[in-house]
Records
---
Amino acid sequence: MWYADHYHWDAWTVVDCFADENNTIPWYFNDGNAPSLGGDRKFYFDVDLRHRAEDCLTKLWLCVESVVSNPPFVPGTEYPTKFNYLRLSSGWDSIKSTDTVGEDAKARVKEYLGFLNWWSSSVTHWDAPLE
């Protein structure tokens, strides 16, 4: 069953994409670059990937926050939680841990997109308070 009261936007989550005019795929559908091993023997995200992820997560979160902070969004209604994108700057003990955080970031971007897609396609006059 795809519908859940808790995550009512889940059916609108983005599951696939097309390459853009430069034949690039968004980072959240891509494997990205392998983590690098720092001098402290911790694994870190590729700097370019980290910056793109942080930028994307920040911008999408601002959109989600804008929706949930304004009518007609009903206070108390569930919505996606904020991803702590500082985790992308942290060093991790294993590549598996780094990959897990990366997968969490990708999943959160897709969830934000799904939430925004659900909101903009399901709620009439949603954009009126934002003007």
---
Amino acid sequence: MSEPWGLAWMSGMAFVMREQVEGRAVRVRLATPGDFLILLALFRVSVEEANRLHGQSYPLMDEEEWTRCSHYLERQLCHDPRHAAFLAETSEPVGCIFGQLIDRPFGKPRTFCMCSGLWIDPSQRKTGLAMELLSGLAQWAEQRGVHTLEWNALGKDTKWTDRGFPPVYTTHQTTWIAGKMAEMTHQLREHDE
């Protein structure tokens, strides 16, 4: 049995065609600056879905932060060659992923691709589309000499572990508030004793 999709390269951009059960093809492609508003909308849907599934996610997003996010994404996707996004679409957008090449101040690998914002429309889940988006981003990074992908996940979100990617390290978060600092310091001292 052959692979259900074929990979082709055109003008330096990867795209993947895959036949769906209902006969529709899904195309995964490198996003262009013209896709900015679509990507912003999909990212927002992804954050709102994570909030519903896992409780309020981090970082907290209100309308001011969404405006900041909009400016950031536009600046990065339109003007910074170290950022990329891949878009999956049928006749409409059905998924996306974002990537950013990051240099470590020390340690190897020196440069890695930080993946974020993976989202798949519920009608396209469990079809391999997430791995196709991740593969597109990996190929983009590889063309730039980068062979390591990393990503963060919410503590309750197991989608990456479920796909066979074990966590390497976990980020913990707390908020220091005046009046609570002494309580936290006391709890830390009790733990260390």
---
Amino acid sequence: MRDPMEKSRAKTLLVEIAIGTTLVIIAILYATYGPFGWLPRRKWVTFTMISSGVFGVPVWWYRGCWRHAAFWVSTGALLVLHTIAYSIVLARVKEFPPLLAAISCPLEWLIIFPILRKTVRGYCGPARRGDSAAAVPEHRPGGP
């Protein structure tokens, strides 16, 4: 009989491979036939990619909290503030400054993680030593 964790990991790995393959195919098609007139300007595409990283990491980190509405309300409110701030900046510039991405991601995480930590305190969150009822495994290679 197979271990349920092994089956779950195999399914997750297949999803990750499918997403990665799709992104590579899209990149090849864009490089071959692009740019397309129906695409938004590059600065907004860059903003979308950066936003997925800025919010994808905390959402993954607190994946044990996905069942709780407070987590999603907090994350949504932070995403709205993030979008408003970037919209103001990007409306004033012609291209997305590459250095902005490298600087803003860690700085935003310094704001997002403490807010989410306070929001989810008491009912979920990353595991701590000695916390046997934690929803998220303690070992996180490469985690923030």
---
Amino acid sequence: MQAVSAGRWIRTREATTWFARTLAVLAAGFVTLAVAALLSHGAPGARLLFGVVSLALAAGAVWLARSYAQRGLMISPDGVVIRNLMRTQRISLGEADGFRPEVPAGAGRPCPVLHLRDGHAVAVGGLARVDWLWHYDEQVRGLVPVCDELNGLLAQVARTATA
């Protein structure tokens, strides 16, 4: 994870970069398949269909690569912005209660979770652990210092925003 500071995007570079590059390579493979299909011999309708499907899959992979590359968290006097794969959420500083390390339901990976004063919670997927799919208890314990640092930054920014 890169340095935690106000007004800057905070992300786990290793996971974000690895997934984005992998999806970009996958997109290039789909484009190659589309070109090969369109240039090959055979029924024109089948070639066209295969080429269009390959290009659609390439576009989806490019979109996912871009989404993975942009995942992260920013804490500023304007509030907290959490960019996940499918959704960006903006939360005012007054709504934020604090970060806790958890395995959020449906997220699959241990990551910091911002709990809100109304009882809702928002996972920060861009800070998820990149370890193997087991030993989640150890991974959650490993996120405690990260959450402590994020809570310190949240408190510091909230104090300066109200001052």
